[in-house]
Structures are given as C-alpha cells and as structure tokens.
C-alpha cells in the first residue's frame, strides 16, 4: 500500500495530462477532473446545510425535552404554591440546566413573571418571549433576543393535579452554542470532501494514465505517423522480430527474420508448426511460449541467439514476441573470451588461495591444488632443500626435493612426494632452473633429454597417458627457488605458448608467497635458536629441590617467557620465572638480558626484594636507552617472580614484580595460593618491592608459572586458577616432571596462543646430622677450641682428609671476625654436595681480597682462603654478614684432597690463628 501511495504521489499533473493538451488522454482527464471537483463541491455544500438543519432540530428537541421534563418533575407544583417559590425552584433549575446541557431553565407564573433564571438579577422580571400558546396548553418554540443574547427556547405549561395551568417553564440554548456545533462539524465535512476529491481525482488519474499509455499521448494524426515509423523501423533493423499469437499463428515477421529463417512470402497467418524448414528445436521453442534468453539454435548454417517474451505482461493480447540475432561470427570470439575469463579467474583464485600460511610446504601444496584440474591434470612442485630450511638455494640444479604432488588421480607414475631428485642437465627442469625461463614440451614422447632422466619411469609416464609438460621456474627476487611442473594427459590438448605464459604468471604469483614463507622459516628458526640458547639447557645440580619444568612456545613463535634455577651459597637455591610482553626477536632478546641480569645479581646474594629493585632499574635504563634510538622499541612490559629456598632452615623468601602468585602443594596434597605482596611490573619504578618468607615442610611443591598457562580468551582468570588447583591437588607423591605433564594436559589441550613457562620444585631438607653450628666467644683464644670441634665433626662425617684445609680456613675467618667484626660470632658447617663453612658476625663491613707486600706482616688471610677452597664470598643479613667458603668433597673431586705442607703455609705467612689482613 505504501508503494502505491509513493507511486501515486510521484505522478505529476504534466505526466497525467500528457505531452500535448490536444491528446485524447489530456482532454479526457481535464473533463473528468472538472466534473469531480463540481460534484465534490456540491456534496460539501449539501452536507453543511444538512448539518445546520440537523443541529437546529436537535437544539429544539433538547429544549422541549428539558422543559417538559422539568414541568412534570415532582415537587414543582408544590413549590409554586409556597410563599417563596424562587428559593426552592432556583437551585433545582440550575442543577437541571447544568445536567441537561442547556443554557437556561426559566420558571414563570402565568403572567410571565420569572421565578428562576441563570442570572439572579433577572428573577422577578417579565419573561422575554411569547407565552400565549403555552397558556393554551401548547408547546411553543421560538428564537428571541433574551438576557443571554440570541436564544432558541421552548415554553411548556405546568399543570396541577386538576389539569389547570398554574405556571410556565422555558428551556433553551444560546444561538452561538448551536452555531458552534455546526462549526465543529465543518472541518470533518471539509476533510471528508477533500478526501473524496483526492480519491476521485486519483481514480480519474488512473483512468487518464491508462488511456495515455494506450494512446501514447498522441493526437490521431500523430498516432498514424507513429505506426508508419514503426513499420519502417521494424523492417530496417538488423535483428529478426516475430510476433506469434496465442493460437500459434505467426502474426508478424520482419524482413530480417524472413532472411535469417528463410521464410516464404506468405508466412504471416500460418501456424508455426507448418514451417517445415525450421529446426525442430526452434519450432518447439516458438510453440511453447516460454521465456527464453539468448538461447542458441541452428537455422541452416547459421547460429542464432533467440530471445522470447510474452506480450500480455502489460494487459496486451496473449502471445509471444521473438527476437533473432545472428551470432555465428561472435561464437568464436566469445569462446576465446570465455577462455580468457577462465584464465583470469584462475589467476584470481591463485592470488586468494596460494600463500594463506607462512609454511613453504603448505604453499607448494596450494599452488599444485589451484591448478588441478582447471589448467593441468597433474602438478608437481620441486624445491631446493635449502629453501625448505629457510636458506637461499645454490646456483646449480644439483638436487631438488619433491615438495608437492597433486593430480586428478592418485595412481600416477610421477616421483612421489618427499623424494630428492637430481635432474640431469638435459631435462627441462634442469634447463629451466639454470636459465630462469620456463620450458614448454608439447610432446613428451619426442623429448629425448627428458627420457634420459629415468627411462623406465618416463616410459611408464607416457603409457599412463601424460603427453605434455610445462616446467616453470619458481623465481622470486632474482633467485630461483625450484620448479613447478604442469602435466596434461589424454583428456586435454597439449599445452601451447599462451598457456605457457599463463603458467609463468601463475608460478610468479606463487613464488612470492613461497619466498615469503622461506624467509619466515629462516627468521623463525633464528628466533627459536636464539630463544633456546637464552633458556636453561639443563638444570644445575643441587640438593635443595627436585625440579621439573616445561616451556611451550606460542603459536605465533618466540616470546619472552623464561625461568631459571640458580644454586646459591649455603646449599640454597634461587628460582626465577619471568615474562616479557610481546613476541618476536625483541621480546626474546629482552628476556635474555633480564635472565643474564638475574644471574649477575644473584651472585651478589641479594634478598629477593633488592634483586627486583636492581632489575627494575635495569629495565628502566633499557627503556630510556632504546627510546632514544630511532626505530627501537622499549620493553612494553615485564614481570618476574624471584624466590630463594634454604634447605637448612626450610624457609623460602620470595618477591614478585607484577607476576602471578605461585601455588603451593602441601605434603598432604592440598593446594594454596599464598598471599604474596604484589609489586609493580618491572620498569615502572618508584614503588618498593616486598619480600615474604614462608616456612615450607619437606615435600612441599612450589609451582611457578607464567600467565600463558592460566589466562585464555575463552575463559576467565579465576577459571584457570581453579583448573590449575584441580590438576595439582591430590597427588602429593607425584614427581615434579609428572606434575608438569599433568598440568599441561589439563590446561593446554592445544597449542597455546601465548608461550608458557612452568616450574615445579619439590622441597628437600638437609638432615640435621649433616649440619653443625656453634656460637664462638668474642676471644682470639676461642680459635683453638673451634679447630678441635671442627676436626671431631669432620671425623664423624668421614671427611678427615679435609681437616687441615678446613681448620686453616676456619681459623682465618674466625680471627678476622673477632678482630674486625662485632658480636655475636656464629659458625655453621654444612655437609652437602660440598663442605660449606660459614662464619657470621654482627658487622656489615665487607672483607676484600688483596695482595700483601713482602714486608707486610699480615693481609694474606683471605688470599689463603681463596687458594684453599673452591669458592668463597660474603652475603649480608639483617643481623650482619656471613662469610662462607666451599670445599669440594674428596669423592666429588675424584681424588683425595691434598693438604699444603707447613712450609707452604709458612711462605704464605700463616701462623696458626694469627691475625689476618683487615677486611
């Protein structure tokens, strides 16, 4: 309905009238519109008069009804007989007037003196109007000019019980209120008239439009001339036209149709099936009456394009109109155009379908699949071995790997995929690889150079029906990467030079994708090699933790997740897990720098919070340095968790910088996530880090991981944490390696979008019998006693061979602590993979190694310690410092420890527990 309204609104008066006012359609339209306007105007006037008459009659009826109703109301006669009837009747008349919708109700005596009136000032005055007819018992209506203005009123008598007229009552309306009723109806009447005018005009327009379409807005002489021109054009066009009636008779055939179909002169009026010279399929089409568009039919030696349409679509007579076009000469051109279109479509599809991934083998498969069967029956792709590994190929075609094989059948005798083929110089493949130009072999049976490659196989290929070959080099950026070979079998004609050009274009488009995949393979291999070299290749030997780990790279390649296990003095072990945001070489290189920095800072034996503070400063300097370098990108974000576990005290100190909290698996199998203070990510600066210390029972598993393990776009972080809890819980005796595998299988069913580092360490405590500690009095004489107890403990441990060296080391360390340190002094001896001696005191003064002069009496103590032990160093605590020294065990060294002679000791300036160089 909306479409019809829009169409009707768009029709202009000019289009309805026609091109010429003298046209039949224009004259009929003007006459009809004038008649419609006149009829509508008369109808509107009649409606207005009828409305006024009806309104007046309604006003009179209402006035009479109200007056009679009040005259017969109970109590009115009784009120008239009272001494003051106005007091009783005035309220009644006002209430009745308002409820009845009239303007006044007036009660008067038989002389016309008012008892009531809407205007109280008019009470007691004579009624304006005629009361004679009413005194005679009649109902009288009239229009007067009363106190309220022009009024229409009705007067009726009031009778007592005896039927005597005792008073009169008059009710009515002001004339202006009656007129208002008419005025309110007038818009409706006018709107109805306008609507009738629009509808009538629209109907007239439709009639005029149809008439105009049938007469084409032409005058009689113009219509005559039009038909003359129609006949002239119909017989002059170079396209055959036939008009066939509903009964199958040929009503019209122009000159071109007669020529194309070789029709006889008296063909018009005859049935189509009587034309025996026409092709049967053409006759069947003309008789059927169905629609046809560019259907090809033969007429003798001509090839005709036939179009057929019905003639009754616009209300015309039933039948069909047929147009015939000679397309004999265009058929060959259209065939070549179709071939060109198919080739362009092939190139277009190759642009979309080849190179969807950065995988060399997959890209080669896509090249082979896009060409079969639209261009070739079989396609093979041979690439140099170096290309498959991301390298540039050698210049000579010594060997190529068959990377892809695809064909219309699978039982072909061509070389199988994966085979290394060494092409002879006489083959088209070797020539094309060497020259960089494609080779066309239209008949393989005569190609002797190709036969020499493998006579038995070439014979099988020819017997299979393969007869034509195009060998096109895969050339990109001036380098030939391999060869693409297109074969055709007996189902198709041999390749020609145009198809050779198409093959070159097809391979050229694929070559860029293969080269991109090769470059990506090389860069990816370099990045993976770099990342693998930056991650731990093997975990160090230590006794404090049983460690298992997993590193899973992301789908997009290398990233910045890392982990580390670092042995520390005193049998302690540091665990580190970090994550550098981003992917690629920059993230991997940044990860390597951070891991190296953690190793360097750990040699200082810093607490976790201090180590993270130094690491935070380092990342800030990296960002500052790289922000000044053009094209360099800073560290977008980096997190780290650093923990130190002491197997002697079974305490673990840890701090984190923007990293996820670790998980703890108790020896009973329950899983908790400790409330570890969360520091800011590395590089932000300004915020201190906090260290938390936890007491871990022996057998507790400490689980460190990066966010790629639990975070995923398909699940919330809380869900990942619960999955991790479920994977760890209930298996307290499971080895860390098996726990790592179970966690990976539960949380990472496929290749993750982000790389993952997972480190699970089960704590182990040193047995108390392998630890000895003593408090040392702040007196140089106590050194001798400590030598004795040390010797006894070494004999108990079966390490008597180390007694001389360790007594000497202990003497030097205690002497330095007494001379240059403060109380309290404490000695601890640890029997682990090495023998560790620790001397602590309350001073924070750091000792240092120096070379004493020949004339110096002291200063050789620490030098002696460094010569007698594997390692030594200093670490600071909240109570002071600890100087430690490690001595390899005899079984670890592979031979007994050799004690220096007293002569050597004397040369070093050692005299028992004598004073040493100041720290």
Q: Major sheet, described briefly?
A: 6 strands, antiparallel
Radius of gyration: 57 Å
Q: Please state roughly what percent of the residues sit in beta strands, choosing from under 5%, 5-15%, 15-25%, 25-35%, 35-45% or over 45%.
A: 15-25%
Number of strands: 31
Q: Between the first and last Cα atoms, what is the distance in angstroms? A: 105 Å
Shape: flat
Helical proportion, percent range: 40-55%
Strand order of the largest sheet: 12-11-10-15-14-13
- How many alpha or pi helices? 26
Mean pLDDT: 81
Could you say which structural class the secondary elements and strand pairing correspond to? alpha+beta
List the uncertain runs. Answer: 1-21, 892-919
